[in-house]
Amino acid sequence: MNSPVDTADVRRRNLSLVLRHIAAHGPCARTELAEATGLVHASISALTAELIANGLVHEVGLASSGNRGRPRRLLELAPGRVAAMAIQVTAGRLISAATDLDGTELWRDDRPHAATYGDPRPVTREIGRVVRDGIAAVRGEGRARMHLARVVLAVPGAVIEDEIVADSILLGWRRVDLRTLVRADPAVGTVPLSVVNEANMAAFAEYRALMERTGAAPRVFAYLRGSGNGIGGGLVVDGAVHTGGHGMAGEFGHIPVSFDGPACKCGDHGCLVTYLGLRALMQAAGLDPAAYDPDLETGPAEFDRRLRGGDPRAVRALESGARALATALTAVSRVADPEQVVLGGHLAGWSDWLVPSVLRHLAGRRAVTPTDEPVISTDLLGADATLHGALRYACATVLDDPAGVPLLTPA
């Protein structure tokens, strides 16, 4: 005999199955749901009634059944009921957005956090203010009954079990329980929070964008992004982000490409970022990184101007970076064997120089095993990739467990 827990789990899974199909294929009729999910019509009727009761789904009209039977009532996601929020933490700013469950943007914000290196407290205080402002925004304009399902905090650094930020070289954090710190704000305390790696969210978003554009899903997908003075990235394997045993999978910027190379902040030498990070490229081109603010992109703009003008030092700097990238991609290919590699950030911006140079360095191996090397392309979402991924992650928590959304009460 099934226990109450077993029955509740089955119901939760079935609710998720139905809601996910409506989200992906709506408007659709109950008969279509039964055919797609394999559930009997009585179960579909009960499940859709529950989804309607908590405001996640509504009926939007009728469609002909194609015979003499009654027209079918169509169901789709109901707007204005559930919001998801994502906050991307960078070296100097908090970039935030909130969407409806169908991805419609409700609010966006971008502000400095003025944190000092190694101290997470100013960041967490500003995150609390962002959450309060975001809640006020998504519940405005006639949306007072909007349920904030989750806030996802996307941070630069390895995130391990219990969503602890194990290490953020960019921010100078070590073993920071960001979720607990943010929850100290009374306005945030009851809101569901998730802490994730920002590059992993960008990787997942770019994977989904590529899949939606091409209709094909690479089994192994690698994403490398130059951002600020770092190089991050992520691996997607069989449709899910692969984080590895310690949350460090996809840290492409810290693949050593020369053990005799420059010292890196991670404690190693000759990491990819020491050749292809913005600071490394600027120094190699004769520019002083300290004279530029990476957030304002004045340094990259000057490097770009020199590169496009044929400045020999800038060209040599990027050629050196391309050799390092080719070495790193060879290691990635031999270990993870990605079918597709996507470059983002400044790697995408200078891909016209990087990709041909990388391919030249890989030419010998490609001549022997041409089908073993990945296809290299540039990103589709650009700077918004992390927010797209984090918002998808937040919405997925609702699609996974619709019963977590409270029933609507009479106004």
UniProtKB/TrEMBL annotation:
Pfam family for this entry, one: ROK
InterPro entries the record matches: ATPase_NBD, ROK, WH-like_DNA-bd_sf, WH_DNA-bd_sf
Membrane-crossing residue ranges in chain numbering: none
Signal peptide residues on this chain, from the entry's feature table: none
PANTHER family: BIFUNCTIONAL UDP-N-ACETYLGLUCOSAMINE 2-EPIMERASE_N-ACETYLMANNOSAMINE KINASE, ROK (REPRESSOR, ORF, KINASE) FAMILY
Family: Belongs to the ROK (NagC/XylR) family.
Name this protein carries in UniProt: ROK family transcriptional regulator
